[in-house]
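User: two proteins, same treatment. go.

Assistant:
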Amino acid sequence: MPLGLGLLAALVLPAALVLPAAAQGQAAAPAASAPDVQVYMRIYPLSGDTLLYEGLRTVRRADGQVSVTTTFKRPDGTTIQRTEDVYVEATLAPVVFHLEDLRSGEEETLTRGDGTIRMSYRATGKDAPSSGAVDAQAHQVSTATVMPFLLHEWVHLAAGEEVAFRLLVPSRQDSYAFHLRRVDGAAAPPGQLTVRMEPDTWLVRRLVDPLFFVLDLAPPHRLREFRGRSSLKTDDGKEQDLRTVYRYPDEG
């Protein structure tokens, strides 16, 4: 069974579009509704400029919740993966998550209940999913809320402090301890802040290399690039680390 941490690259949300108060270390006040926002993604190997995939993400805010739907395609237009996430805007608590890979048939789901979070995973070639649950707790992050959480902790990260959280992983029906920390030196381009995300345990670190987020220093701290493990596996089902570049509607 895969670790499932590759969901990060697929689901990293340009939260500056939906969490404007995050840079002040506060959750945004929920809005009744807001216009849909679309964000475009171009996905490359970690090294090189060969376009491998394209993504379109639609962010919708209504009744105190944020809904994020994403479609990934090959450059020829063939859809290969779809995801849907819903979370509570004020608290970042996950409500529901679903991922479907149209090539392999893999599916992952997450549903929040009373005090628990239920998760399931259906592997390639399997008719029935495996499932389990964990207790809901503070600083527990789903893949769709990694970026909103990062922005909520912006003041601490910009000051060089380490921020800890637990990442929910539906393919394992469990959560894992991670931490975020600012990267200094050559890895921090002028006018931008690079944040490194790394597992706390040595076993997970053996499976997944650190992941990197590159954001604008200036508000609203837009995410410009993500580098790391992706949910978009190769056609023969192998995990891959990729580079995702984000483009926003008002930038042409």
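Protein 2:
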Amino acid sequence: MTAHAFAADELPVGKRASLAALLASTALPTDDIDVTSGRFWRFRDAHGDVGFAGLEVCGADALLRSVVVPAERRGQGHGRAILAWMLDQARRLGVRRVFLLTTTAVDFFAAADFTRIARDAAPASIRATSEFASLCPATAACMMKPLTLHR
């Protein structure tokens, strides 16, 4: 299969152990994975998991969370494919702007047209999420991408 041929399965609360384990192995936050109302997906192909990602929708805005690819699957385009899928999902949900915090992937997201913004420029609903409020360090870069809805 190619990097873009994968299945996406939503992970319900209580069924996110594989996501939490991968996040922990890459030093990404896991504290609220099984309690947040955010939606998380597992992406897999014939060879196994290619990654995970989450989305917390707050009206017309959303927080992109936990885009992660296992180390052995990196460099094959999976991250870009997962990001494109997540942005399409956000559009289907009526999201107009996607926000994220990152300590390690500024260049990856900048290549996908996310721009850095001041953390306090994010809307209050996004700043109130646990990732913004307590899980990610204040040094994390805040980024935003406006979305054009499909017609």
